[in-house]
Amino acid sequence: MAGLAESGSNPDVDLLYDINGLAKDAPHWFDRVMEYVGEYGLLLAMVLLVVWCWWSVRRRGGENAASSVAALVWAPLAAGLAVLVNVPIRGFVRRPRPFLDHQGLDVLVSGKTDFSFVSDHATITMAMGVALFVANRRFGLVGIALALLEGFCRVYMGVHYPTDVVGGFALGTAVALLLSPLAMLLLTPLLRAVEGSAWGGWLVRARRDTDPEDAPVPDSRTNGKRARTEERDLAA
User: What are the contacts of 110-114 at 24+ separation with CB within 8 A?
Assistant: First the structure.
């Protein structure tokens, strides 16, 4: 993989210069926005998207509330696990950052001294997006779109090759999909136990004031008195 960075005559490097070249032509304020969005903003947006989906699921409730929330819990867990898997991959490939081997790049973020392949940001966002898609397709499509935008930003910022981003997408997708059945097998019973508990039920479903189980039980004595009163009134 490191050999790809040694020459500018391959599509990976050519695409790097094409995308990063947009930063040179853009206004300074726009580059600052892209720097924040690519480094922090999209990660925060992904977390808020998962929280929004969780809020929607718990309000809807239903028999499958526990399994739906379990699928949402898997989203951040999948992202964290994918990053852990990436640690030995980075150490094995040892690909330098593109600005170390290529001149003329407009690097928007300084201080990047670790290896380039694969992109942690692309891995995290795609793992969360795919896991969210498994839980809810509507929210998941938005999450995957955010992950694609994250990948573009990393190349635009000059800190990753396009193949670093593609590798991150592949790794995040693989972890989220391949381990999803095992995760659901472990998380669903746990969330069902939380749903039935007095302290954590609100995490799985919203309390409804009109819940039939919470309705007061009619007093038979009061009903009996009311019935006898109505009979006397009819007799009169």
Answer: 112/159, 114/90
Segment 76-102 shows an average pLDDT of 93
Q: Which helix (H) or strand (E) holds 108?
A: none
List pLDDT tens digits, range 183-207: 999 999 998 888 887 777 787 877 6
Q: Could you read off the pLDDT of 9-19 as tens digits, one per residue?
A: 689 999 999 99
> How far is 148 from 43, CA to CA, in rounded Å?
12
What are the CA-CA distances from residue 5 to residues 108, 114, 159 (Å)? 19, 15, 13
- Per the structure block, which two tokens stand in for 3? 């050999």
Are the C-beta atoms of 42 and 146 separated by less than 8 Å? yes
CA-based radius of gyration for the chain: 27
- Non-local (6+) Cβ contacts of 138 within 8 A are none
DSSP element (H, E) containing 195: helix 180-196
* Distance, CA of 49 to CA of 72 (rounded, Å): 10
Q: How far is CA 134 from CA 10, 72, 174, 217, in A?
A: 36, 9, 13, 41
- CA separation (Å) from 81 to 27, 94, 137, 144, 206? 37, 20, 22, 18, 29
